[in-house]
Design brief:
By secondary structure, the chain is an alpha/beta fold. It has a domain of 92 residues: Immunoglobulin-like (Sandwich), CATH 2.60.40.380. Helix content is 24%, strand content 26%. It is built from 13 helices and 22 strands. The strands form four sheets. Strands 5-2-1-10-9-8-20-21-22 form a nine-stranded mixed beta sheet. Helix 3 packs parallel to helix 5 and helix 4 runs parallel beside helix 6. The longest helix has 16 residues. It is globular. The N and C termini lie far apart (53 Å).
């Protein structure tokens, strides 16, 4: 397919159902040929970028990639080639080098029959002095809960330099589970309809999600760096298994390898499990792996208190023993050492900010005791029991969420001390929780940095647990219960941006006005900033 493209069409093309990829159903996914899923780019450096597409045909065709300074490809500056192999679900990835730093480029793929992919836009990372750089940050996009309006809004912007996806790019569940059919938005169907377990399942789930025109537009218009969270594999995984993996679903290692392969096939990523990206002298972005490389098994409150006669005593014993164990890790020893050395190297090179883009909340977060009283009037026995246990956890000094860094306090202490010792200007980015949070991060009585945790693209958050509590009341109680928490919003969907300058970091949470109808309207925004060297959000 040949495209004549201008700036307006590049940003708007594919939005809101335009184009062949909007055709729903298994027939489209299983019978399509040629360039079936648009283009994407990722993992940029100062001189190279990875280009992605999918081309379905007989055999193993070699695709050519062209990078140009203009959308008409009158000034082609680099070329590359690579195969579209059936063993990788017909996806092709080509890393093209020889580019200039800090430049926007256009790119496309050309098939052996002369057909062209859609035209994409990408950029290299800057070198040397950088005055400003803006990240768009996303997580938790469940297709059946609603429209990807956050992707649609960002895809039209011209002030973003790089997209960061913190995971839960899709969800592995079968149709009818999260969301249930009564919550699912009509016309938002997933393939396969069963849970993703085998390689072909994961491939088809990616193919299903990537037909969304707004996700396609985001990939087409910006380079992305990405790392999985849990649902690209199975809910709440760790080194040896996952909450959503049962014995009758086969060998865990086989499923994990299948999920990892599908991710590497369908995403604009290469093979490293963890990596860093240098934004000139302005920032280093560190992207670790937090789920399957070194994570110890998560604790869960229902397991901890099962059969407990004295709830408070049981939780106090857990706090003093298992929860505090020094050997429990999120990253594993090798990755902890890599990150600590990375902080030191970044600071010693004169880089002004150290950005840790990872999946789960790092700030200390507690369940508000007044909320337990409110929930105690719920009609649900399950909800009342959950509130009773969480209230007891708060009284014991235990956190709200044991799947976050709160469940691994010794590992968090090691990470924050390494940042403190390196004198890093630390900004932590997190997804996973589906809600918006701003934390001051502290360790040993010292300010270490700040955390921006982002609301989901579509997945419901804390508000679905306590719908009877007004959002402002809920947020106020959460902030009051957690000294590090400076602000929270539990009522909206959307995405974040982080704009870095040499002396300040500016965070913005953007909330879409709906996910149940197509719209690029932003209902509200919340802005905060920190000054370099402060280690805390400004008052």
């Amino acid at each position: 397919m040949t495209i004549t493209i201008d700036r307006r069409l590049l940003l708007q093309g594919g939005l809101f159902g335009l184009g062949a990829l909007a055709t729903p159903g298994a027939a489209r996914l299983l019978t399509a040929s040629g360039f079936t899923h648009d283009v994407a780019s990722g993992e940029p450096t100062q001189s190279s970028v990875l280009l992605w597409t999918r081309y379905v045909s007989e055999g193993q065709p070699t695709l050519r990639a062209e990078i140009a300074e203009d959308a008409e490809f009158g000034r082609i500056v680099a070329r590359g080639e690579g195969p579209a192999r059936s063993a990788y679900d017909f996806t092709a990835k080509i890393t093209v080098g020889g580019l200039d730093p800090g430049r926007w480029y256009f790119y496309r793929f050309i098939a052996p029959d002369g057909s062209h992919s859609p035209t994409g836009r990408t950029r290299t990372l800057p070198e040397g002095g950088v005055d400003s750089f803006t990240l768009g940050v996303f997580s938790c996009s469940n297709l059946r809960f609603g429209w990807f309006n956050a992707y649609a809004h960002a895809a039209q912007r011209d002030d973003l330099d790089l997209i960061v996806h913190l995971g839960d790019y899709f969800y592995e569940y079968q149709a009818g589970r999260y969301p249930g059919e009564e919550q699912a938005l009509a016309g938002r169907e997933i393939m396969p309809s069963t849970e993703a377990i085998a390689l072909a399942d994961y491939w088809l789930r990616y193919a299903s999600y990537r037909t969304d025109p707004n996700l396609a537009a985001l990939h087409r218009n910006f380079p992305m760096i990405a790392r999985w969270d849990d649902h690209e594999i199975a809910n709440d995984p760790w080194m040896g298994g996952a909450e959503n993996h049962q014995a009758d679903e086969g060998d865990w290692e086989v499923r994990k390898r299948a999920a990892m392969q599908a991710y590497h096939d369908w995403m604009p990523v290469n093979d490293p499990m963890w990596a860093s990206y240098r934004i000139g002298d302005l920032a280093t972005i560190f992207m670790p792996e937090t789920r399957i490389v070194g994570r110890s098994r998560q604790y869960e409150y229902p397991e901890i208190v099962e059969g407990a006669g004295d709830l408070d005593a049981t939780l106090a014993a857990f706090r003093d023993d298992d929860w505090s164990a020094e050997d429990r890790t999120v990253l594993g020893v090798e990755q902890e050492q890599w990150l600590g050395q990375g902080f030191r190297d970044s600071v010693s090179s004169g880089t002004r900010w150290q950005i840790l883009a990872q999946q789960v909340i790092m700030g200390r977060n507690y369940f508000p005791l007044p909320l337990a009283e409110e929930i105690g009037r719920s009609d649900s026995d399950l909800v009342r029991e959950r509130a009773r246990v969480l209230a007891a956890a708060t009284r014991a000094g235990l956190p709200l969420n044991l799947d976050a860094w709160d469940g691994y306090p010794a590992a968090r202490t090691r990470l924050l001390r390494s940042a403190l010792e390196a004198e890093a200007n630390l900004v932590v980015l997190a997804g996973d929780s589906h809600n918006a949070w701003a934390f001051d991060l502290t360790q040993d009585g010292s300010a270490v940095g700040i955390e921006m945790a982002g609301q989901s693209v579509t997945s419901p958050g804390f508000e679905s647990f306590v719908p009877q509590v007004a959002p402002d009341t809920l947020a106020g109680q959460l902030v009051a219960a957690s000294p590090e928490l400076q602000w929270a919003d539990t009522s909206g969907r959307g995405y974040m941006t982080l704009t870095l300058t040499p002396e300040a970091a500016h965070g913005e949470w953007l909330f879409t006005d709906s996910i149940r109808s197509r719209s690029t309207a932003i209902a509200r925004r919340h802005r905060m900033e920190t000054v370099r060297g402060a280690g805390a959000w400004s008052a």
